[in-house]
Amino acid sequence: MYGHGMVRRALRHGLTVEDGAADRMWAFVEDAYPWFRSITGEGVRQTLQRATEIAPIEQVEVPSGTPVLDWTVPQEWIVREAHVVGPDGRRHFDVHDHNLHLVGYSTPFRGTVGLDELREHLHTLPEHPDLVPNRSSFYAPRWGFCATQREVDALEPGDYEVVIDTELVDGSLTYGELVLPGEVAEEVLVSTHVDHPSLANDNLSGIAVAAEVARAIAGVDHRLTYRFVFVPSVIGAITWLARNPEAVARVRAGLVITGLGDTGAFTYKRSRRGSTLTDRVAELVVAPTPGATLIDWYPFGYDERQYCSPGFDLPVGRLSRSLHGSFPEYHTSGDDLSFVDPDRMVASADLLLEVLAALDGNGTHVNLRPHGEPRLGPHGLLGSLGGGVAQKDYEQALFWVLSLSDGDHDLVEIAQRSGLGMTVIVEAADRLTAAGLLGPA
Question: What letter does residue 32 receive in the DSSP assignment?
Answer without folding.
Answer: H
